[in-house]
Task: inverse folding
């Protein structure tokens, strides 16, 4: 079977407390329902949730969403360790892809949706990021779509991404509104990408991620 793994890596630092984390938690059941009730999408995709603050943790290991009754909730508190997020993500991808391939699946390059509302509070995160993104160092290096809201630095969000990057239009919308659009975009990407896989079969497919998303500005990955 052809499998496309998706990872949601979400900031759980103290600045996400209140409306921000509540918005994501309300959106996760909708994402679960949309994907789990579509057999084509559920068969072609796997989904994992990683949260990070002082440390990162795998909240939901990579799974077929049709086999789950619910997704765990996020909670907010602590600092913002990008280093831990990237290291846990790399370890998870390596373990997950190896397991899927051992089961005989054809695995496409993983896709990561990264979300943060602030600045990293550790100084050595770029080394972990570079290892994660460098295919010469990590054969399963993922495609990363990064989103920044609230006080996130657009230059850092663009640095994290290697596929697309987006920054909240802070002058016109609230973080909660932007997060609702983020969740919708994540769901649409999973659904349309899986549908493309099913339609094209062995001829491959194009990852479906919107170039423009309501409430966000698209960032250039060529400029820091």
Result:
């Amino acid at each position: 079977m052809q499998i496309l793994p998706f990872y949601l890596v979400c900031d759980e630092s103290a600045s996400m407390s209140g409306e921000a984390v509540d918005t994501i938690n309300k959106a996760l059941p909708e994402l679960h329902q949309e994907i789990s009730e579509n057999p084509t999408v559920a068969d072609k995709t796997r989904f994992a949730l990683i949260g990070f603050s002082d440390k990162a943790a795998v909240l939901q290991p990579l799974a077929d969403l049709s086999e789950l009754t619910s997704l765990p909730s996020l909670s907010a508190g602590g600092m913002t360790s990008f280093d831990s997020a990237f290291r846990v993500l790399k370890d998870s991808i390596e373990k997950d892809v190896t397991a899927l391939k051992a089961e005989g699946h054809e695995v496409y390059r993983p896709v990561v949706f990264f979300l943060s509302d602030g600045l990293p509070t550790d100084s050595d995160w770029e080394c972990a990021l570079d290892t994660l993104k460098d295919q010469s160092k990590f054969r399963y290096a993922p495609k990363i779509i990064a989103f920044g809201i609230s006080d996130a630095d657009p230059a850092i969000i663009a640095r994290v991404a290697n596929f697309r990057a987006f920054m909240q239009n802070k002058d016109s919308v609230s973080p909660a509104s932007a997060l609702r659009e983020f969740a919708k975009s994540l769901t649409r990407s999973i659904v349309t990408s899986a549908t493309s896989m099913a339609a094209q079969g062995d001829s491959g497919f194009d990852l479906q991620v919107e170039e423009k998303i309501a409430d966000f500005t698209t960032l250039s990955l060529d400029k820091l």
Q: What stands out?
A: The mean pLDDT is 94. The longest helix spans residues 175-200. The radius of gyration is 16 Å. The helical segments are 19-36, 39-44, 82-102, 125-133, 154-160, 175-200.
